[in-house]
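Researcher: I'd like a candidate sequence for this fold, 124 residues long. If you have to choose between options at a position, lean toward the conservative one.
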């Protein structure tokens, strides 16, 4: 098996980045939760069509607040090299305009850079 083929098989998954991001945020003093964003599901009940939406379209994967200052945080996590959808970018923009710390990341290094940029340095 070639080295390139092995590297392909051990590619970093989004869920792995997500877990690492949540661990770093917790170490930096954030209380965080994973949001399960699912699409709309339409079904029929008693002759009527019903729709169930799990979350707002584009909502970020992780949300929470900082223990010390209460600032709200929204983080969209992507697999390395992937980018957020226009809906996800719009969500992050809306949150940012509302005063939340919001951004997307595809690595722990990028997460730490974003946190330091906003004044959250070191562990709390």
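Model: Candidate sequence:
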């Amino acid at each position: 098996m070639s080295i390139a083929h092995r590297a392909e098989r051990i590619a970093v998954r989004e869920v792995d980045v997500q877990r690492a991001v949540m661990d770093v945020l917790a170490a930096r003093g954030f209380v965080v939760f994973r949001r399960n964003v699912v699409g709309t599901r339409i079904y029929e009940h008693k002759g009527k069509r019903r729709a169930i939406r799990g979350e707002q379209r584009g909502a970020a994967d992780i949300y929470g607040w900082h223990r010390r200052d209460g600032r709200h945080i929204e983080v969209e996590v992507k697999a390395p090299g992937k980018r957020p959808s226009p809906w996800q970018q719009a969500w992050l923009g809306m949150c940012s305009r509302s005063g939340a710390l919001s951004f997307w990341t595809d690595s722990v290094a990028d997460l730490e850079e974003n946190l330091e940029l906003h004044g959250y340095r070191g562990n709390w």
